[in-house]
Amino acid sequence: MVDALETAPRLAHQDLGAQVLQAWLDNAARVFYLSPLSVSVPRPGSAAAPARGGVPVLFPQFADQGVLPKHGLVRTAHWRLLQDTAAQGARQLRYELDMKPQDDANWPHAARLSLQVKSKLDELVFVLRVSNTGDQSFNWTGGLHPYFAVRDVLTSSATGLAGLGVQDRYDTDLRSQPPGDLCWTTQPFERLYEACPPVTLDAGGYSLRLSASGFDQWMVWNPGEAGARALADLPAGDWRRFVCVEPVCVTRPVLLAPGETFEGRLWIQVCRH
Ligand SMILES: O=P(O)(O)OC[C@H]1O[C@@H](O)[C@H](O)[C@@H](O)[C@@H]1O
């Protein structure tokens, strides 16, 4: 009998941003893209940079939609690792971060974040919890930003999104996802979906079944050939090696009263062809 632990994805991770960097399946396939040019060591005068790849956590601001640094404050914060274990056929990680009102003048709130990751056989589950530990309500946007490794984004596709309302950064007249599979070209792609139904991503060689709860939108992003040139931490040509399908809350910020907790989950199931 094969021990399920032997086949559960191995995980690499770092406390900066509680960022899962990689998950290896038992055949050594990598679930996530991770740029070899990622630098997480702080340079004098600048904050530590999150790795380009894996699964960054975005909070309390999605992308550049507000006054905070792009994608918020926690992907450049050092989290506490509370659990890193392998038992009963599963690997489990748990990170925690406490945010205090005095940490950032533009977001003067108290919150506790926890990220739990569980890998079992061909499955990964991410659970992000946000608790309001202060005495005033706050709202936030953000979520998870997985960089899914694909053989070639130009031959990859995703199903499950047809007919959903969209906001597209580059095609502002587009109102809904056209019928058929979603495919990518050499052009930059950034499309926010109005909901978060299950999606199947054909990564080339295997598919990833993605489903989420708590989060209520998908953001699908790939910088394309031209957009990638502006990303110093991405080798030329590597934009073809990933697509980000991100479970997020953007259009409807999450309001948390004192003592309330949000819970968002992402399930990633690897299906061999
Ligand atoms: O380069 P960053 O800060 O990691 O962001 C990557 C991309 O992340 C996506 O989620 C956003 O929709 C894009 O606007 C953004 O460019």
Average pLDDT rating: 94
Q: What top-tier CATH class fits best?
A: Mainly Beta
Ends distance: 23 Å
The unique ligands bound to this protein are: 6-O-phosphono-beta-D-glucopyranose
Strand element count: 18
What is the H/E string?
HEEEEEEEEEEEEEEEEHEE
Structure description:
With 273 residues, the chain is mainly beta. It has one domain: Beta-galactosidase, Chain A, domain 5. The protein is built from 2 helices and 18 strands. The strands form 3 sheets. Strands 4-5-6-7-18-15-14-10-12 form a 9-stranded antiparallel sheet. Strands 3, 8, 9, 11, 13, 16 and 17 form a 7-stranded antiparallel sheet that branches. A two-stranded antiparallel sheet has the order 1-2. Strand 1 (10-14) and strand 2 form a beta hairpin. It starts with a helix and ends with a strand. Bound molecules: 6-O-phosphono-beta-D-glucopyranose. 6-O-phosphono-beta-D-glucopyranose (BG6) is lined by residues 63, 70-71, 145, 190, 219, 221, 246. This is Putative glucose-6-phosphate 1-epimerase. The active site is at residues 145, 246. Keywords: Isomerase. It comes from Albidiferax ferrireducens (strain ATCC BAA-621 / DSM 15236 / T118) (Rhodoferax ferrireducens). It catalyses: alpha-D-glucose 6-phosphate = beta-D-glucose 6-phosphate.
